[in-house]
Amino acid sequence: MHAVRDLRVLLRLRDFRSLLAARLLSQAADGVFQVALATYVVFSPEKQASPTAIASAMAVLLLPYSLLGPFAGVLLDRWRRRQVLLYGNLLRTLLAMATAALIVSKVPDWLFYASALSVTAVNRFVLAGLSAALPRVVDGEEQLVMANSLAPTAGTLAATAGGALAFAVRLAGSHVDAFVVLLAAALYFCSALTALRMAPQLLGPDPTLLQPRVREALLSTARGLVEGLRHLAERRIPARALTAMTVVRFCYGALTVTVLMLCRYSWAATESEGLALLGIAVVVSGAGFFMAAVVTPWAVARLTPFGWIACCAALGAVLVPSLGLFFEPGPMLAAAFILGLGTQGTKISTDTVVQSSVDDAFRGRIFALYDVLFNVAFVGAAAVAALMLPPDGRSAALLFVVTALYALVSAAMFRAGRG
């Protein structure tokens, strides 16, 4: 009841409602755009998707988050954040419209990827701006805690709903990829209009607190990341956890590309059937992520974080060959659920280890490095899969590599837990 009362108080705040609406519309558009990009690359009838194309799409979706993330805050602390939300979403509207035009025009793939990359690069600034602005629209620490709980969760749900809407539109007919991208552009535009409900100076930053020069701020950020890396090298416990998470994320990425190729070429007679199967696989894996949130606190309390990571990796080492080598939808979907649980369980455990074993002064920088490792591992896995997978996605060699990596992580975490 206390949480419900606090939520009602938050929703009475006009500026909070405006910022939340801008977030929901922006992240719903992100969900639509990301699914539109993925389905265009993999499931368009006129395109012959390859693992290389999938790896390129994943790089477009994930690398801007990693490479720009640590430096986005430097600029956000110099620009008025309300203007970032307004002009950032207007820019993404135009870029998404340009991407739709490129789809219709059948241009070379590199030009399409360059346009899509620009949309996701701007996205990093908008999302960071939404988070940085939150303390300016609530009163007091108690409301801020509730707002930090509500806003990101609601944004994730909005992105999921946007992705589901894109899937539904895409299943309604072929040759609608450009229309789906235009739908994302419309949502970006609505988010920009919502930002106009807030005064330009409302969301900060305070100009008296800025560093004098952008160059100095950027160099300070780069030095901070190097110092964070040195701090991590001196502490074996968080370094081991981050290494394990990176390897597990790599395995999950390689298996994701495998399932994409199987859905496209091996499990379905038509692109629509393959897209529907992919949607089911995403839902099943997502259910595993949700189950990890339920199970992990109980498991960590009994096994320790390293013990639970070892169990999660051991599940992967057993299930990948026993279920994956059939290359059939049923066993693969069962594996998707368990591997989703294991991957998210590993991440939650790693978060706990890093939060509890890294000095507070370095925690932000370590998590910035964590974000880079998390996304680069996924993109790297897609690149390796592109080299190893045949067109139909059936590669026993890749599954054995993933199995070996899971086994190594399990053994290393079991030893670390005992030490």
Describe the fold and architecture.
- This protein is mainly α.
- It has helices spanning 2-11, 14-43, 51-76, 81-105, 109-133, 140-172, 177-195, 214-233, 236-265, 271-303, 305-324, 329-357, 360-388, 396-418.
- The chain is globular.
- The termini are far apart.
- 45% of the residues are buried.
Number of domains: 2
N→C terminal distance: 44 Å
Amount of beta strand: under 5%
Order of helices and strands: HHHHHHHHHHHHHH
Please identify the oligomeric state.
single chain
Low-confidence stretches: none
Number of strands: 0
**Any idea of the CATH class of the largest domain?**
Mainly Alpha
Please give the largest β-sheet.
Answer: none
Number of helices: 14
User: Roughly what is the average pLDDT, rounded to an integer?
Assistant: 84
Q: What is the correct CATH architecture of the largest domain?
A: Up-down Bundle
Q: How would you briefly describe this protein structure?
A:
Helices cover 84% and strands 0% of the residues. It has 14 helices and no strands.
Question: Would you spell out the secondary-structure blueprint of this structure?
Answer:
Elements lengths: L1 H10 L2 H30 L7 H26 L4 H25 L3 H25 L6 H33 L4 H19 L18 H20 L2 H30 L5 H33 L1 H20 L4 H29 L2 H29 L7 H23 L1
Helix pairs in contact: 1-6, 2-3, 2-5, 2-6, 2-7, 3-5, 3-8, 3-13, 4-5, 4-7, 8-13, 9-10, 9-12, 9-13, 9-14, 10-11, 10-12, 11-12, 11-14
What descriptive keywords fit this protein?
419 residues, mainly alpha, Growth Hormone, Chain: A, 2 domains, 14 helices, 84% helix, globular
